[in-house]
């Protein structure tokens, strides 16, 4: 039985400003008060260096990276560039990118490989759409995304999986604990099948409308090793209760 520390990661998406980095000091204080929990914030690229400087030691990350280290890829940022800017982690394969930028599993896989090779903790997101859930395909869809977008484990950087049902993101609709238990168990099974003992150590986050008032029950679900939090990570007032729920789980 593996003991996995909870990870509570904030995804600011295309939100935030220099002014808003003031939220980081209260978040950092809460993180110091919860030594058994890992806390991270992923602001927009433009805020990473400032967030590193003002983040009170909280790991700061990116929300995407290109799979190549450099080159003629206008508008993109590589994993090595993120690392140089002080980022310690990166999210890849978020459903908003899979939908808006038509990112395929193969592209997400390449990004994850590049991120791990650059030494970044890498959070790979998977999750079914509402139509897929209603058609009874949630487990199969997640299994397919997992098989297609999770890289081989190599080097020292940590791989993390985030299960984010698309219909629960930013909607205020959280998956039920039974839904989450079923999918997280399936993910764990697939990770152990593929990686053996190491698959038991990979953290699996839940994401999708996590808030202070539902975090505790989600963290109590087997194989929920933390949360990827969007809207509720933008202010310390909303994010700190989620850190505290993780600390008490
Ligand atoms: P949400 O977003 O918490 O605002 O639903 C979660 C995510 O997209 O990572």
Q: What do these coordinates show?
A:
The protein has helices at residues 23-32, 48-54, 79-84, 95-100, 105-117, 130-134, 138-149, 177-195, 197-201, 215-219, 236-247, and strands spanning 6-11, 37-42, 61-62, 89-92, 121-126, 159-163, 203-207, 226-229. With 249 residues, the protein is of the alpha/beta class. It has an eight-stranded parallel beta sheet with strand order 2-1-8-7-6-5-4-3. It is globular. 47% of the residues are buried. Residues 11, 164, 169-170, 207-210, 228-232 line the site of 2-phosphoglycolic acid.
Sum this structure up briefly.
By secondary structure, this protein is α/β, with parallel strands linked by helices.
Mean pLDDT: 96
**The CATH topology, please?**
TIM Barrel
- What is the tally of beta strands? 8
Q: Quickly give the structural class.
A: alpha/beta
Radius of gyration: 17 Å
Largest sheet, in brief, is: 8 strands, parallel
* Low-confidence regions: none
Give the CA-based shape: globular
Report how far the terminal alpha carbons are from each other: 17 Å
Class in CATH?
Answer: Alpha Beta
Bound molecules: 2-phosphoglycolic acid
Draw up the topology in text.
Layout lengths: L5 E6 L11 H10 L4 E6 L5 H7 L6 E2 L16 H6 L4 E4 L2 H6 L4 H13 L3 E6 L3 H5 L3 H12 L9 E5 L13 H19 L1 H5 L1 E5 L7 H5 L6 E4 L6 H12 L2
Parallel strand pairs: 1-2, 1-8, 3-4, 4-5, 5-6, 6-7, 7-8
This protein binds 2-phosphoglycolic acid (PGA).
The site of 2-phosphoglycolic acid has 13 residues, from strand 8.
